[in-house]
Amino acid sequence: MLVRAALLEIAVLLALAALLGVLVHRLKQHPVVGYLLAGMLLGPSGLHVVGQPEAVAIASETGTALFLFVLGLEFSWSRLRSFGGRVLRLGAGQILLTFAVVWLAVWAFTRNQGLALVWGGAIALSSSTATVGKILEQERRLDSPIGRATMGTLLLQDVAVVPLLLAISALGTSTTPQANPSVVGVLGRALLFAFSAWALGKHLLPWGLHRLAGRERRELQVIFGFAFLGLASWAAHTLGFSPAFAAFILGTSLGESEYAAQLRADVAGVKEVFLCVFFASAGMYVDVGWLASHAALVGAVAVLAVGTKLLTTWAAARLAGWRSHLALPIALILAQLGEFSFVLIQQGTAAGIINASSVQLLVTLTVFTLALTPLAIRVAWTKLDLRCGEHTATPGKKGHVVVVGFGPAGQTVVAHAQKAGLEVTVVDLNPQLAKQARTTGAVAVVGDATHWEILDRAGVANAAAVVVTVPDDRDAVRVAQLVTRATHTVPVLVRARHQATVPRLEKLGVIPVGEEVLVGQALAEKLLQTLATLPQPAPEPQAPSVPR
Fold it and tell me: How far apart are CA 343 and CA 247, in angstroms?
């Protein structure tokens, strides 16, 4: 009965979260706001529909681990270094300055270092790179100076999550907030575990994924990755750490590997489901009655928190060398609290170092500022951009040809394109073929091109042309659909194994190359060539004519 009730409650929670997510998305808000509202409505302070908090808590913790695992896959040390020293100084300064100011203020008011730690970390961190990056990309500002400064800071915030989680775990093991052998021991075990998890994820996990590479064993790769993530999370939980800590370490260890893009694509759908449960469970923390009776307090703290973060981020940007009129939009974009704030709140609650009132305040602040993120970014561009004179950088390189599939047909296309002086990016699911493509001088992306994440990484939006050479007609049509949805200006040539597929491709507006017609033409040419080389038969002798 308990299991059946828990399944029903989670199903109702997901259904309402999906509905509200769609509604708030139409209002130009992030779907996360809808998930949070679903938790508030169905939780203990709302309709009290969800009565199995343990089941939701397990799903929430799993969703957090998956979220940080995928976030780790998206993290790249080389990408972080590419932002340059000024951006890195800005990010480090923003995190440290905001954390220090908030920590000191909360500690002076409460004399509780653990509580100050959670408050400082929750307010110092902003929305994830995935959330803000998607909005910046839609506004075509991702590669602008302000966009790069914002993304570089958010990447550093991703790194900052790890020491914050460890510090919260360490303080949760001690009854006193001072550094003692217990805390030092926890930190020592954490460093040892982090190094072990990173080394295994860097070497053992790619080795296993390489052995399981291939379309016919795709599901085994996903199962192996999930099993590895589950074992690492279990080990972290056994040692008293958050499973999210282990998940992020594993993700970053794979982030530079050739399997990262495909794993992100494979777990994207599952991650969104568990992430929905995570935010809905976070919404259940909100006590609507408490919120109504403390509305003035919430408003005042919101103004203080956002105002403090605006000032500290602006100051960090100025200290890093940004001019004042450029520092202001950067500060506005980063002023909100984000998904990581919920992670720290959850960890602080589990460690017993954050009280109920602080949970209510922080969750409410996060919901409020997260909902204002799209508006803040639009204001930063439309209101401030006119004065700051910041222009969008030109897009990335154009002119490269994306070739999907590096079989015999793909190899021929690549050879001819390179002979013509074109840069080529190859997409193939087989790591061996991708390695072979690199030996020709082409850029290679390992992954299934029927997932948009893989095509996006190959840069189809900026390509001079896309050539699909895969032999499976269903996959070819799927790739053509994804490319044409993303761009209508890039010419797409698609191999059609069967002539019946040609009309479907023509409806998509791509250029189909019918394999059956080409084979027929080639056979006809070979036939005529073969017949031309055969010796001509001697003419039959004619009977002598008899004179009449």
Answer: 13
pTM for this entry: 0.67
Residues whose CB is less than 8 angstroms from the CB of residue 56 and which lie 6 or more positions away in sequence, other chains included: 9, 10, 13, 50, 277, 280, 281, 284
Question: Given this model, what pLDDT does residue 307 score?
Answer: 92
Whether the per-residue pLDDT at 548 is higher than 60: the answer is: no
Res. 80: pLDDT tops 80: no
Q: Could you give the percent of the chain with pLDDT greater than 90?
A: 16
Q: Alpha-carbon distance 346 to 354, whole Å?
A: 9
Q: Which of 206, 189, 183, 49 is nearest to 113 (CA)?
A: 183
Backbone torsions φ then ψ of 142, nearest 5 degrees: -65, -35
Amino acid making up residue 394: T
Domains along the sequence of the chain with CATH: 65-274+298-361 (1.20.1530.20), 401-529 (3.40.50.720)
Binning pLDDT at 50, 70 and 90, where does residue 175 land?
A: very low
- Contacts for 44-51 with beta carbons within 8 Å, 24 or more apart? 44/284, 44/287, 45/284, 45/286, 45/287, 45/288, 45/289, 45/290, 46/288, 49/9, 49/12, 49/13, 50/9, 50/12, 50/13, 50/284, 51/5, 51/9
Percentage of the chain beyond pLDDT 70 is 83
Does the pLDDT of residue 174 top 70, yes or no?
A: no
The count of other CB atoms within 10 Å of the CB of residue 163 is 13
